[in-house]
Amino acid sequence: MTNRGIHYTLVMEDEKMADLPVQGGQTRTWFALLQALGLVLLIILAEYSARHLVGPWLPTIGAWRVNDMLVSAVCYVSLVVLTAPQAKRHLSIFWQELGRIAAQARTPSSWVGVSLLVGTGWLTVADHWLWGRIDLPVWNAPSSTLTLFSQAGPLLRVISLLLVNGLLVPLAEERLWRGLIQPRMVTSMGFVPGLLLTALLFSLKHAIIDASFGRLLTLCAFGLVVGYIAARGSWKQSAFAHGAANTFATVILLFTMGGNV
Predict the structure, then answer these.
(1) Number of structural domains, the chain?
(2) Which of 133, 109, 122 is nearest to 241 (CA)?
(3) CA 245, CA 48: separation in Å to the nearest integer?
(4) For residues 186 and 183, what is the distance between their CA atoms, to the nearest angstrom?
(5) How far apart are CA 49 and CA 140, in angstroms?
(6) Tell me, what's the pLDDT at 29?
(7) Residue 73: which pLDDT band, with cuts at 50, 70 and 90?
(8) In which domain, by residue range, is 53 found?
(9) Average pLDDT over the chain, rounded to whole?
(10) Is residue 120 assigned to a domain?
């Protein structure tokens, strides 16, 4: 597929992009870039506020990680609904989209993408060696002293991690990053620069939320892979690959770290 072909696929992937033609004027090009950067800022502010301010402040539901997953879920569902066209803010549409994402399992290239995404995990070694000990400043709200359902904490932790970190957040991230942000980046900058900048901002978002550069290279590579999958297919295909890879990584993490996750 030529760069022009990939560009067109990306631009037309989201219906809201239909009014941003491939050969639009400079005004529309800048408008697309500002839209993308504005959405990136919104995602960072929303997730940071949810996980560092709201989550700790709420009563702990079994374990602090459960709170973290619950506020992340609310945050990303809200972002997806907020950025969806008015006509698509219906539960039936939501289930249809999930069905289309699940259908990507029948596409061999989706599983190739999953393998590549899992393979990027090896870059964590380089990340750890280069800047694994560099922490970024972070501000957390005071933690609540009230704990509910403490005995169910271990079970709730596993369930919340698998459902939210393994499935919900990856699907929502792909809708936002590869379904909305990347097409606008490509419209304004061209395919390769747009793909690279989207992957870099995706990685930097995680660094800000995690208050660490510990996954910087890993998530840059991850972002490039899902970005290319979305370019060649659709954001639904990258969402399937992202969700499968995250679920695999979450299962491994639960087995190796157990209650320390």
Answers:
(1) 1
(2) 109
(3) 23
(4) 5
(5) 9
(6) 86
(7) very high
(8) 23-91+104-260
(9) 90
(10) yes
Query: Is residue 116 assigned to a domain?
Result: yes
Pick from 221, 227, 76, 47: nearest CA to 138: 47
- Euclidean distance between CA atoms 206 and 65, whole angstroms: 17
Q: According to the model, what pLDDT value does residue 259 have?
A: 60
pLDDT-based confidence at residue 12 (cuts at 50, 70, 90): very low
CA distance 70 to 63: 11
> At 149, is the pLDDT very low, low, confident or very high (cuts 50, 70, 90)?
very high
pTM: 0.89
Query: Is the sign of the CA dihedral 53, 58, 64, 69 positive or negative?
Result: negative
Res. 16: pLDDT tops 90? no
Q: How far apart are CA 5 and CA 3, in angstroms?
A: 5
**Helices 182-189 + 216-232 axis angle, to 10:** 80
Q: What angle do CA 69, 75, 77 make, to 5 degrees?
A: 100
d(CA 151, CA 93): 37
**Cβ–Cβ under 8 Å, residues 118 and 249:** yes
End-to-end CA distance of the chain: 42
Length of the chain measured in residues: 261
**Structure tokens that stand for 189 in this block:** 């900058």
Instruction: Evaluate whether residue 135 is within a structural domain.
Output: yes
Residue 3 inside a domain? The answer is no
